[in-house]
Specification:
Blueprint lengths: L1 H10 L10 E5 L7 E6 L14 H7 L2 E4 L3 H4 L2 H10 L8 H4 L2 H15 L6 H7 L4 H17 L8 H11 L3 E4 L3 H9 L4 H13 L1 H16 L3 H8 L11 H25 L2 E6 L9 H7 L3 E4 L2
Parallel strand pairs: 2-5, 3-4, 3-5
Antiparallel strand pairs: 1-2, 1-6
């Protein structure tokens, strides 16, 4: 169970014809340019060397900001808060929350992914009291690992940029707090809506696998437009995120970051490493920076 919470902590961070992930931010009185790079939690640290201009950007910047300070997120206190947020209220279990038919479908999916289901006492003890959104995230990750074997959760690209900055004696920071991300990502929906979303995963496994594969392929191709297109794919039913849910997960956070980034960049040239899904689109960080008066150019 402790390992599951470490996986959550390391993956709590999410995702113009854009065939690059790294962008230079200049103008509007900045004495030196800053940079922003799109990350993806399924990508290994080694992928950073495949991003054109990445080494120079890291060398030129004097500090690195992520969505969170990754080292703080892995601290005992943060993991304890996360663990509490991922568990159902006292006395509640998934078997009490779901109907017999829903449990049958959930168990069938878990059997496919894990080789066992919640009728196994050990697995039930570990996962039977998790919130639906926590279980959904866990199963999605474990399913991807089973299908591809490509996730190294402790050496991901998000952590890499901050570790490199620390190793070079540079500062690091976060655009958000751990408490905010936990509340937004794991406590922002009612249990009924979480339950609905988990069953969407269970009942539409092939669709979900295809969407994940498209996002991963687009990321490694460094194509932001393709990432956004994959993330925006709709099923046209209650499995789709509502406008309010999308705003809470992406748009509102992007807007909030834009209230903080100018002062950070004015202080020191900064490398921002955030989920790639936050960069493209009308309400994406790249466009918001341009609207704020900065020059934003893809690094090739």
């Amino acid at each position: 169970m402790k390992r599951l919470f470490v996986i959550f902590a390391l993956t709590i961070v999410t995702m113009s014809a854009s065939a690059q992930l790294l962008y230079k931010i200049s103008g509007k009185g900045l004495s030196s340019p800053s940079y922003i790079v799109g990350t993806y939690h399924l990508a290994p640290a080694s992928f950073a060397d495949s991003i054109p201009g990445m080494r120079k950007a890291m060398a030129d910047c004097q500090q690195t900001y992520g969505e969170l300070v990754m080292e703080e997120m892995l601290g005992a206190d943060s993991l304890a808060v996360l663990q509490q947020a991922l568990m159902l209220p006292e006395g509640m279990t998934l078997e009490k929350l779901f109907t017999a038919d829903e449990m049958s479908r959930l168990n069938a999916y878990m059997k496919e992914v894990l080789g066992m289901d919640l009728t196994n006492p050990l697995l039930s003890q570990q996962m039977g009291k998790m919130t639906p959104v926590a279980l959904s995230t866990t199963l999605s990750l474990l399913n991807y690992m089973k299908r591809t074997g490509r996730i190294d959760v402790q050496n991901g690209i998000d952590s890499y940029f901050q570790k490199e900055a620390v190793a070079q004696g540079k500062g690091i920071g976060g655009l958000e707090t751990i408490a905010f991300q936990i509340k937004t990502l794991y406590q922002g929906m009612s249990l009924e809506r979480q339950k609905e979303q988990l069953m969407c995963l269970v009942d539409n496994a092939a669709f979900m696998d295809d969407m994940t594969d498209r996002v991963v392929k687009a990321y490694f191709a460094q194509n932001l437009d393709a990432i956004k297109e994959a993330l925006d794919t709709k099923m046209h039913n209650n499995c789709d995120s509502t406008p309010e849910e999308e705003a809470a997960l992406i748009d509102n956070r992007n807007a909030d970051w834009l209230t903080k980034m100018p002062a950070i960049m004015a202080q020191k040239p900064t490398l921002f490493a955030v989920g790639a899904g936050h960069l493209p689109g009308e309400k994406g960080v790249l466009n918001l920076l341009r609207k704020a008066g900065y020059t934003v150019e893809g690094v090739k």
